[in-house]
Structures are given as structure tokens and as C-alpha cells.
Amino acid sequence: MLKKLEIGELSHEDEESDIREKIEVTLRRLQELKERVAELKRKCEELRLMESQRTEQYDVDNRLRCDKCGRAVDAAQQVAVKDSEGVARKHYHKKCFQTLFK
Fold first, then answer.
1. Has this prediction a pTM greater than 0.85?
2. What is the structure's pLDDT at 23?
């Protein structure tokens, strides 16, 4: 009878440790998923911000707007200011751009 009880206790303890391990694994996975969701939310917010900035550069006819006067810029009159990576960040009419340095 003592042996049966000991075996029963051991198997019960093994079951509990297995359950604890499964819970710990599940909690670690949950934490990883929470971190991934937070990262995806941050990336979505960055994309929303970039899109809103991009659409602010264009008028209703999908032409670039001058960053100084706000009117549409024709390609022949356009001056683009680029960042260090070569991406155009600001657009001006030639005359508006010249007035920036006067």
C-alpha cells in the first residue's frame, strides 16, 4: 500500500510539474506575442504618419505643393530639397525658393 501511495504521489507531482512547465511556456509565448503586437502597432503608427505627411505635399489634382506658399508646383518650376539619403523632403517654386535666401 505504501508503494502505491508513493507511486501515486510521484505521478501526481510529475503531472503538476508538467502543467507548470506548460503554463510557463505559454506565458513566455504570450509575452513574445504582446511584444510583437506592440512593435506592429508602432510600425503602423509610423506608416500612418508618413502617409499623412506624403498626402499633405499634394493638392487635389495630385500635384506637389510648394512648402512656402502652398500652391501647386509645376515640374518646370520645381525645386526639391533632399535629405542626406537623397529623398526629396521639401518642394518649392523657383521664386519661393529664392526668397528663402534673401
1. no
2. 95
